[in-house]
Amino acid sequence: MTIRSFVTAAGLALVVALAGCTSTSFRVFTSDYGSKRDAGYSLPSIPISKVPRKYHRQIVRYDTKEKPGTIIVDTSDKFLYFVMPEGKAMRYGIGVGREGFEWSGTARIAAKREWPVWTPPAAMIKRQPELAKYAGGMPPGLNNALGARALYLHNKRGDTGYRLHGTPEWASIGRAMSSGCIRMINQDVIDLYDRTDIGAKVIVK
Fold it and tell me: Which residues form the L,D-TPase catalytic domain (predicted)?
């Protein structure tokens, strides 16, 4: 082998090695979107093949100074990160606020609810009068707008009105369609709910 050939081969080997080192995904949970029983409800399976793979729940490399247990919401890329030890995070695909309803800031998880009641705000009812029938609350269930779980966000001024919540509208993941809340596939919000503590820091950017 000539010196030039050796250098070329060594260079290719280095590129391959570096490519392996920069892989960000450690495990993808594509098989976790099947039907399941939960608190008496039959949660339907998600046609996960129709959801882009990048939005499937997965453990990824994630460098941050925030402590484990912190939630970081990237509204631009439509990802939610639950910070884990050793430079890793559980990453979920999300839906975010549509134009005019975007927001950012720091909050905390003040409350957690399984199969919550959804009460549309007065401003939403004004925009969508057909929601007036739920002014007293939409009962929990498979068609409830908050889905299987809701995490309630508060800041120094109190309730922000925003939630991290499930949705029956799985096709909205990866899109900007909500009124500001962060939407998740029901199977994903159940997973996040079980990992998250009351008082956890939430950063939305």
Answer: 69-205
